[in-house]
Amino acid sequence: MAAEARHFKYVVLGGGVAAGYAAREFAKQGVNPGELAIISKEPVAPYERPALSKGYLFPQNAARLPGFHTCVGSGGERLLPEWYSEKGIELILSTEIVKVDLASKTLTSAAGATFTYEILLIATGSSVIKLTDFGVQGAESNNILYLRDIADAEKLVAAMQAKKDGKAVIVGGGYIGLELSAALKINNFDVTMVYPEPWCMPRLFTSGIAHFYEGYYANKGIKIVKGTVAVGFDADANGDVTAVKLKDGRVLEADIVIVGVGGRPLTALFKGQVADEKGGLKTDAFFETSVPGVYAIGDVATFPLKLYNEQRRVEHVDHARKSAEQAVRAIKAKESGESVPEYDYLPYFYSRSFDVAWQFYGDNVGDDVLFGDNDPASAKPKFGSYWVKDGKVVGVFLEGGSAEENQAIARVARAQPAVADVEALKQEGLEFAAKV
Ligand SMILES: Cc1cc2nc3c(=O)[nH]c(=O)nc-3n(C[C@H](O)[C@H](O)[C@H](O)COP(=O)(O)OP(=O)(O)OC[C@H]3O[C@@H](n4cnc5c(N)ncnc54)[C@H](O)[C@@H]3O)c2cc1C
What we know:
Helix content: 10-25%
Domain Monodehydroascorbate reductase 3-like C-terminal: 346-433
CATH superfamily of the largest domain: FAD/NAD(P)-binding domain
Radius of gyration: 23 Å
CATH architecture of the largest domain: 3-Layer(bba) Sandwich
Number of helices: 9
Keywords: FAD, Flavoprotein, NAD, NADP, Oxidoreductase, Redox-active center
Bound molecules: flavin-adenine dinucleotide
Number of domains: 3
Largest sheet: 7 strands, mixed
Mean pLDDT: 97
Strand content: 25-35%
GO molecular function: monodehydroascorbate reductase (NADH) activity
Number of strands: 26
EC number: 1.6.5.4
CATH topology of the largest domain: FAD/NAD(P)-binding domain
Protein name: monodehydroascorbate reductase (NADH)
């Protein structure tokens, strides 16, 4: 006979960044023991996922759990597993939900356990796109790796130990590719990056911005192969990858291959049960979906981005944190007949590798205006870009900014000041931001 369903007032489905910040907000707003459960496929309590491609891979003093559980990434309290038990918040770990029935408010796990709820927060995040998904020849070979969760990071650490001082090929020129290339280089690998675009991070970087990072990486000894893609892999008798075959005919030797070619929001469980848009689950400004009592937060939500008056999905950690807090505040306010202001998000994204670190706020649309010194050989590089649309600054990128300067560029992206003279803006550079 099937065991009886376990019932919770609130269930967070997924145990990543958004789940951790939702738990903290529930505790802040007041939740009774036994009311809230987090159900996660992962075996550990929520943690700050960005650490996996950064501190986790350091050759010395590497970050390890419990060091980076949420909410340390935003300077908040570190929620250890004990914190959850003290609050009476149930962490149901190593539990994959394979079936969701929003009509009967029931979730079913791979092991056949069932859970019912009154309010559901969907926080399933994204999964990585794999080369095996496209049937790339040899893509199933050993040591062709991806990075999304702690198990992936552990595999990468083990491969780096097994193939010490070897050759690494990084497939993909996005921020994951850039961060992982740096990590492998710091671990003394011979690193080659491969990507099809004319420059790295083309979704955000302009050619002027990319000029700096490509030169900086080259100076660190990282080889960059652009304008082609991996079409196959060779392996030895053990099944370990030995080479990457490129579309342009070149062959790169490899002991480790890391693929960072993007993610997909995990929404398949809800298909046909809830409205979707732009690849995510459509929500209102409080992250409630088309099904009352069902919320979507973090990477899976397509929400109204008030500042630009359009529905967007954002796959960044800052939004995962803030959307979780907004949803929980809205849920609790509704219960007491109150209301909260609409979500009014300013897009924010950052990355760091080696000794460089950048931040970006706003929207990268319109004309870009590069300022500062983007010479990759500079001792202390500091440069950036404004994006100007309809005579207003709508986005700002800054490499090497101080805390104050980063706050200033955030203010600019929020205020959208008018610019009459683009050439003057270029000359003024950061001074323009300081005045806003
Ligand atoms: C390596 C890496 C580095 C990153 N670095 C940065 C960075 O520098 N800056 C930045 O802004 N963003 C960064 N990001 C993106 C950021 O981490 C994500 O946007 C953020 O984690 C999204 O939070 P989330 O809670 O929506 O999803 P996630 O944190 O991915 O959490 C989803 C959780 O749901 C679980 N889950 C999914 N399906 C099920 C199921 N069916 N049953 C049970 N559990 C399930 C997953 O196992 C996971 O625990 C990085 C991401 C990665 C992978």
